[in-house]
Structures are given as C-alpha cells and as structure tokens.
Automatic annotation (TrEMBL):
Protein name according to UniProt: CRISPR-associated helicase/endonuclease Cas3
CDD domains named in the record: Cas3''_I
Keywords: Antiviral defense, ATP-binding, Helicase, Hydrolase, Metal-binding, Nuclease, Nucleotide-binding
Keyword Hydrolase attributed: yes
Example of a GO biological process term: defense response to virus
MF annotations from Gene Ontology: ATP binding; helicase activity; hydrolase activity; metal ion binding; nuclease activity
SUPFAM superfamilies, A to Z: P-loop containing nucleoside triphosphate hydrolases (SSF52540)
Family note: In the N-terminal section; belongs to the CRISPR-associated nuclease Cas3-HD family. In the central section; belongs to the CRISPR-associated helicase Cas3 family.
The organism of origin for this protein: Streptomyces minutiscleroticus
Disordered as annotated region, ranges: 381-401
C-alpha cells in the first residue's frame, strides 16, 4: 500500500473495542472501522431514502455509496491516539510494545481527551492538505467530531499535552490508519474522497445521524464479535459480518423506489377505499402539483377526513420526491393509538410485511393491542394469531425502557452504557419486527412511525444525539395532526423543526380545524426560511378563498412561493346551527353542571361533559353517581392509570364512535377533561363544557353531532352546547374557574367569552333552559371565530379590561418564548452558518425521555409512578396481582399487569414524589421497571405525599386530598 511496514505493524496493534467491554474479545480498531463501513453499505442498499442517496451522489461526483461508507467508517479514527489507547492497561500492552508510547495523561474525566474530537484533529490538516478545499474539510470534520452526540466548536480542538500523540511513530500510525482504511473500502487515496459539493446544514445533521446509526449497529458485540488478529480483518470479511448481522437484526427500510400512482386519486380511492371529498381531493391534487418538496397546510372541519387525505398526499409526495416512509405526529398518547392502527391498515396495502416496520412512539404503547400483537408476539385484536411467538422472546416494553441509546464506550464520557444484550438482539425472523429500533432515540429511524408530536419537537432541541432523531425524519414525509394544539412554548420547537425540515427537503403536511392565521403564517415562514437558508424570510400567505382550504409553500429557483386554494372548497357536510347557552357555575364541585346533565338526558340521549380540572370531573361524577343516575356513566381523565384509561377510551369509542350503531346506549354521560378535546372520534347529542380558548372550544364542539346516521331523540335533533366554568362578576365582567385561568390565561378566556356572548346573549341575561336561537353555524363560522379570537382588534364589551389582560398575556407569552430559546437547536443568528461546528453550545443535559419531555413542554415538571398496594405478605399490583415479598416480577404478563397501574402525578406532588418514592427492590432486574417510582399505598389504601393524602379508586382514578392538621 506504499506505507512503511513498521507503520502497518503498529496499526495492527491498535485496539478499538476492549475485551472488558466487548464480551471478552478484543476488537482491533481497523476491524471496527471496516465493520462500520460495511454496515453503511447495507444501509445505502436497503435503508437510506432515494432522495438522500441522490444528494450524496451529487456531492461525491456519482460515488455516493463509496463516499458514505468511507465517512461512516472513518468516524473512529481518533482512537489512534494515546488518550484512547491508554484507557485499558491490558489492551495497551501490545500497543506500547509496538513502539507507540506516551507519558502521563490527564485522568480527570472532565479533561479527558475524547476520541471523537481527536478524530477531527487528526483528519482536518490532512483533508485541507490533500483535498485543497478548506470549505469541504470544514463541513466534514464536525461529522467525525460529533459522532458521540454533540458537535464541538473549533476552539475545542485543542488536545491536552501528549493526549493526541507526538513523534514520528504516532504520526505514521495515525496516517496509516486513515490510509489503510481508505484504500480498503475502495478509494485509491484520501484525495480521491474529496466531495465535489457540499450538503446543506440540515442535510449534514441527517448524515451525522446515519453515521451514528451505522456505528451503533457495528458496535454491537453480539453481532460483531471481536477480532484481535489483524490477519483475520478484511473488508470482504466485514461485509460478510455486516450481512449476517443485518439479517439477524431484521433491519430494513420502508418503501424502496415507491412507484407513482397510475391515477392521481388512487391513493384515496384504491389505497384508503374512500370516496374522495372535495377537501381531500384538494390536498392530494396540491401534493401532485408542487414542483419541489414543500409544506402543505390543510385546514378543514372536524370529521372531514383530513388524516386520510394526509396519508394519500404522503404517498404522492414520497413517490415523487424519493422518500421512504412517514411519521405521523399526534398531540397526545391517547390520540396516537387510533392513528397507529389506521396507519397499520394503510401500510399493509403496500406490502403486508411492512406492518412490522410501523412503530408506535409513546411511553404507554405496551397497552396497545396491535402493538403487542406485532412487536411482542401476542394475540391479534381481531383474534388471529400473529405467528411470531418465540420461546424466550423479550417484551417490547422491556426493550423500550430506560436505555439512553448510548453504546458501551460512551460510558467513558459519563453516559450510561446501553450495549444491547445477546437476547435483546436476537433475530426476529426475516419478516418480523426489528427490535433494534426500539432502543431509546431510535424510534424515528423505523420506516413508518406514529407518535406524540414531542418526538418531532425533540428533533429540534439542542440535546445529545439529536442528529439520530433528525436522521429518522429526513427520509420521511412528516404529518402533524392538530397542529393548533402546540402552545406558544411548544410552537418554538415546532417552528425550529420546520426550519430544519425545510432545509433538508422534507415534505411536511400540517392538519388543523382551528388554526389561527398568524400561526399558519409562522409555519410557512419557518419552512421557507429553511428552504432558502435565511432566518428572515416572510412570504405573505394569501387569504384563503374559503373553508376548507389548503396552503402550499415551497422554494423554486431561489425564491419562496406561498399559495392557498384558488377557489372555495365545499365542506363534506352542510353547515348547521349549533345553539349555545350559558350555564353559570364556578364551583369546583360542579353541582349545577351535574343537575344540567340530568336534565339534558332526562328523555334519553348521550351527553359529553368536558371540564378543565380533574378534581371537578371527579366531583361531577360523584354527584351523578350518588344521586342515582339511570344510565351509562363514565369518567375519563389524565389521572386514571394506564390500563383503566385505555379500557375506558376504547369503551367510549365502541359506544359513541363511528361504528357504534346498535351499541349506542339510550342514555349515557361521559365526563372528561381535555382528553376529549381532539382526535376523540365520538358523537355526543349535547355538550356541556367549561369555557376554554375559542379554538379549543370549537374542537370540543367537534365531538357534537359528528357522525351521519346516528339515531337521536327529538330533543337532540339540533346540536346544543352549554358553556359553563364562568359566572358573572363585578360590573358584569366574567369570573372564571381558577383552574381555567391558570391553564389558559385571562385574555384568551375573555375573548372566548365575548364570542360566546354574541351567540348566547349576556351571561347575566340567559339561562341554560333557553339556548339562543342564533348560535354558531359549524363549520362555516370556524375560521372567522378563530381569526377574531386571536386577532388584534378588541372584541370584549367595555369594562372587561381586555387591554390589561392582553398586556399580562403578552408578557407571559414573550417570557415563554424566551424560556424555549435556551433549548432550541440553533440560535437565530447562527441559522445561516454553513456547518454543524459548535451546534451544541451550552447543550441540554436531558437524558431520559421524561426529562426531554419537560424540555419541549412548558410548565411545572411531573412524574409518572406505578401504583402498588402493600399487603401483609409483600406487594400486589393495582389489580391485585401478587408481586412478591420485595415486589419481584417474574414474567411479562405480570409486568403488564403491574405497569397497567402507571399514572402521572399532578405537578404539585412532583417534589414530594421524587424525595419520597423509589423503585421496589424486586424491580432491579426488569429494564422497564428498574427506574420507575413506586407509589406504594398502605393497607388502608392511601399514602401521604407531602401535605396531600393520595389514594386510587378504580372508577375515580387518583384521588388527592389536602391533609388537615
């Protein structure tokens, strides 16, 4: 190879994985570099999207696959330095014997020279010298330096004395590592690996994530056993090892070269079996007409079929622009589950085997029957066996627990180790799910994914391994449902994500029934800022011709384009009057609400009650129950344990959903909190709701008379809404529930009250028994109501002090925006920087998903606990299942029963819970449980947490009472 024999000898002694951390087998550095390159080759062939392959071909002069393998493999070249080679005394002996020596090195972990940064220092001068292109070297070196999850600044490339290696021996060895590897993968020399173009920063971030993915796969010692003999190492051998590992792990991508549909509407009519509505046709046709990947914003009434239209549009966009999967982001865990099942059915129409590549991304997925059937070998919900049950298989829930996604060597840098164990990496079979994707931070790498919007927001945070999350998005079409649900804090991360996705050329589809015009404009500007690579893009969105409407934004020829539906699009259903009335009540016990419920369904019917506070929901339920309500009575809120919440949600859908038919009770009342606000496909005859901001109030109204053909008694032929949670105050100024003001702020509630007053009359002048005849016409009034609610003109009656409330609201919103800036992936002034250098300035240290959730969702922190009952002989799960003297859990079935008792505590109990609760001793060996806090209820069924006594009732859920002294 033209290298000195002595240098080759020294390279053959450099270790990459120590026996102590590699299942007892040393793996030489060159072997790991070649293994990683071989994995990258398979990722190119079977995983990386066609769009990204094209980009890598463009910047490498048509040699994208080879260049990708080289870059992934070269990532660990920095291990050829004293700071790394000295970390294990046993492994260091042959290195020292070969003449590669070192003096005293820093031992303080904070000052330890990291091999990822060392790789950049080793490569950069050679890249500049041999490529003759400082710009190319400038965007490539951060990819090497960042492969352990953070991108350093150039100022960090200063090794401590002796850590990088000095003298001819080290210089020759380091040069030899790079040259031997480079020639082994197929380049004649380092100069030949020079890119002829550059990737945009967002594309660099995606590429960085793919490098990490290749490294993590190749670092699995159960799949790539160590090779300590240099004579056994070759690229051909690495390819064989990678091929075998890929098959055992069951890894695969999504669509491979998805063909264009033969007819424009086939994705709707044939794939989804729907008779297209005008709004659905409009969205799909705009997906066909966009000349480049862009942003689609679909605004249409509740129940219009937006999500199915979005899936059809996603197929068109993926086929046109070379994407290989879809991520559907939902506002909550509860809304993710039905969407997951819908996406499963859709994906099967392409290839039944693809269902094993659909991930459900949220912490309670083990309670979804379809998830368990596919990923855990359980019985399918339709009664068919899933055919994938294998003795000894681990639970999907266990595999999705508390590993932080690190590889073993990360432990040297203060991260928890997460080297996959042999049984976790066991092969799923050729068509089964790839459990590798269940590791933390890897979920978005699955070809098709449905989950909470948090996963999209996480990809816009300045956190470790953010590149891995972004790589999972970059090859997909991204769909965000209920986009209006993001508050001002979360919206900062949404806007940041849209900016990066726009620059990466990722098509995005946003869906909403109640999107304020300012939010629509903000989303368009963010996406186009990414497309054009500028932070100051403002492309005014034309006023829509009507409602429903579709907004399209894209870049072409260096200019931004934003268009809306040119002609009015007819909604699926004719607008109908909804009668509104006030029900004055600010008593948290809700006695007047309970009385109104009894009156509303006295002659039959189904009522939905949506209140803003769990305690209020529980109180109203108790009132109805204790006074002998004659009918089906259900309570649904966020303080139910996971199992009860899932069962109750499913029951509501069965009794009130689109296929309820004969199941629909003659008399039924569901008392719920904001869980019922959106993506809850039930049909109520009458709605009683606490006042909420106008867009959310309209969302609640969207559960009213939702399905055609539902039988209703005569009293409920016209949809009716009673608005409560508000009462007359001084000078007729509305007085709100304290909980409502704390959640939403006074200004947005005043604006909503003003709009309701226009339809229902003054709060002091009407009674619930006589709703105003005018009301609102739904859905035609929706856009105007939302625009007025969030517009700049005053709409409240004189004396309501709207201006003062606005000033308070504005100050709070600005502070929340400022709070979010601390965690955003990129500062505004740095958006135009061309490389990833220094991206992780003052990065967040959030490690677990729960900690990261707190980063992207504003508000007081809260924790989840597993409710356990103390018994005389040990512990029992919430449902009574025996656990053992120390809480031992012996199998997956018992684990399922135990974690069915998971519940989230209100924020006011967080400090007390963290100080006083801990996992049970018997949980130490169960990955999903070992870090979970146990809320142990004593034999009287209660537990004192701080100043509150907590209990759990099978119907009421978590009950909290302030302890009196």
């Amino acid at each position: 190879m033209g290298l000195p024999d002595e240098a080759i000898t020294r390279v053959s002694q450099l270790w990459g994985k120590s026996a102590a951390r590699n299942d007892g087998r040393t793996h030489l550095l060159l072997g790991h570099l070649l293994d990683t390159a071989a994995v990258a080759g398979l990722m190119w062939d079977r995983y990386v999207s066609a769009a990204f392959r094209r980009r890598l071909d463009e910047i490498s002069g048509g040699r994208g696959r080879l260049w990708f393998m080289w870059l992934c493999g070269i990532h660990d070249c920095g291990k050829a330095c004293p700071a790394f080679q000295a970390m294990d005394a046993t492994e260091a002996e042959p290195v020292l014997a070969a003449g590669l020596t070192w003096g005293r090195l820093p031992t303080d972990r904070r000052n330890r020279w990291r091999h990822d940064v060392a790789g950049a220092v080793l490569l950069m001068p050679r890249l500049i010298a041999e490529w003759g292109d400082e710009e190319a070297a400038g965007w490539v070196w951060p990819l090497v330096a960042g492969h352990h999850g953070t991108f350093p600044s150039a100022a960090a490339l200063r090794p401590p004395r002796g850590a990088q290696g000095r003298g001819a021996a080290w210089e020759e060895a380091q040069r030899a590592v790079v040259d031997v590897f480079t020639r082994s993968v197929g380049f004649e020399g380092l100069a030949e690996a020079r890119p002829v173009g550059s990737l945009r920063k967002a594309e660099q971030l995606a590429l960085s994530g793919l490098i990490v993915m290749a490294d993590w796969i190749a670092s699995d010692s159960s799949q790539f056993p160590g090779l300590a003999d240099a004579d056994l190492i070759s690229f051909a051998g690495a390819r064989r090892r990678a091929e075998a590992a890929w098959e055992r792990l069951g890894l695969r991508g999504g669509w491979r070269d998805l063909p264009l549909p033969e007819n424009p509407l086939d994705p709707l009519t044939d794939r989804l079996d729907v008779q297209p509505r005008a709004s659905q046709r409009e969205l799909v046709e705009r997906a066909w007409s966009m000349p480049a990947p862009g942003l689609l914003v679909s605004e249409a009434p509740m129940g219009e079929g937006k999500t199915k239209a979005a899936l059809a549009a996603a197929e068109v966009l993926a086929a046109r622009f070379g994407l290989d999967g879809v991520f559907v982001a939902m506002p909550t865990q509860a809304t993710s589950d039905p969407m997951y099942e819908q996406v499963l059915q859709w994906v099967r129409t392409f290839d039944p085997e693809l269902e094993s590549q659909v991930a459900l991304l949220h912490g309670r997925r083990r309670f979804n029957a379809w998830w368990r059937a596919i990923w855990d070998g359980k019985q399918r919900p339709d009664g068919d066996g899933c055919g994938c049950e294998e003795e000894g298989r681990h639970s999907a829930g266990d595999m999705a627990g508390d590993d932080f996604g690190a590889i073993d060597e990360d432990a040297d840098y203060g991260m928890a180790s997460a080297q996959p164990s042999t049984d976790r990496a066991a092969g799923p079979g050729p068509d089964g799910p790839a459990y590798w994707f269940l590791g933390d931070k890897r979920g978005l790498l699955t070809a098709f994914a449905v989950g909470t919007v948090d996963h999209l927001l996480h990809a816009a945070t300045r956190t470790r391994h953010v590149m891995l999350r972004f790589a999972g998005l970059a090859g997909k079409v991204v769909v965000v449902d209920e986009v209006h649900a993001a508050d001002v804090y979360m919206r900062q991360f949404l806007v940041e994500a849209l900016r990066w996705l726009g620059q990466a050329g990722v098509p995005v589809v946003l869906l909403s029934a109640t999107l304020p015009p300012a939010q629509r404009q903000q989303c368009v500007d963010a996406y186009l800022s990414g497309v054009l690579g500028r932070a100051d893009v403002h492309q005014p969105v034309p006023e829509p011709a009507g409602y429903p409407c579709v907004t399209v934004a894209y870049g072409v020829g260096g200019r931004a384009v934003a268009e809306t539906s040119r002609e009015a699009v007819a909604p699926w259903r004719e607008s109908a009057p909804v009668r509104l009335a006030w029900l004055a009540d600010t008593d948290p016990a809700g006695a007047r609400v309970a009385a109104a419920v009894r009156d509303a369904v006295a002659g039959g019917g189904v009522a939905l009650v949506v209140v803003n506070q769990v305690d209020r929901a529980q109180a109203i339920y108790r009132d109805l129950r204790d006074k002998g309500f004659d009918g089906v009575l259900r309570l649904l809120h966020a303080r139910l344990c996971a199992a009860h919440r899932a069962d109750r949600t499913a029951e509501c859908l069965r009794l009130m959903g689109p296929r309820a038919a004969e199941n629909r009770p003659e008399r039924m009342v569901v008392i719920a909190t904001q869980l019922a606000e959106q993506s809850f496909d039930v049909d109520a005859d009458v709605l009683i709701t606490d006042l909420a901001p106008t867009d959310l109030l309209l969302q609640r109204i969207g559960r009213l008379h939702r399905h055609d053909g539902t039988r209703r008694v005569a009293a409920h032929r016209v949809p009716r809404v009673l608005v409560t949670g508000v009462a007359p105050g001084r000078d007729e100024t509305p007085r709100f529930l304290r909980a409502s003001e704390r959640i939403y702020g006074t200004w947005s509630l005043l604006r909503a009250a003003a709009l309701v007053t226009e339809a229902a009359g003054a709060l002091t002048a009407v009674d619930a028994s006589e709703p105003a005849a005018s009301g609102w016409r739904i859905p035609s009034d929706v856009p105007a109501l939302v625009a007025r609610a969030y517009g700049s003109s005053e709409i409240c009656p004189a004396g309501w002090n709207e201006a003062g409330a606005w000033e308070q609201w504005q100050a709070k919103e600005q502070q929340r925006e400022k709070n979010a800036e601390e965690y955003l992936l990129c500062r505004r002034r740095e958006w135009s920087f061309p490389t990833l250098e220094g991206l992780h300035y003052a990065g967040s240290r959030a490690a677990s998903e729960e900690q990261l959730d707190a980063v992207v969702r504003d508000g007081d922190p809260s924790v989840e606990v597993v409710v356990v009952r103390r018994a005389a002989d040990g512990y029992r799960a919430l449902d009574g299942t025996w656990l053992g003297v120390h809480g031992e859990v012996d199998d997956d079935e018992v684990t399922d029963r135990l974690v069915g008792g998971t519940v989230r505590l209100p924020p006011r109990l967080t400090d007390a819970a963290q100080a006083g609760l801990s996992p049970l001793p018997g949980w130490a060996g169960r990955p999903w449980l070992r870090y979970r806090l146990a809320l142990v209820l004593e034999e009287d069924g209660t537990r004192l947490l701080g100043a509150d006594r907590v209990s759990y009732h099978d119907v009421l859920g978590l009950v909290i009472k302030r302890e009196t002294r």
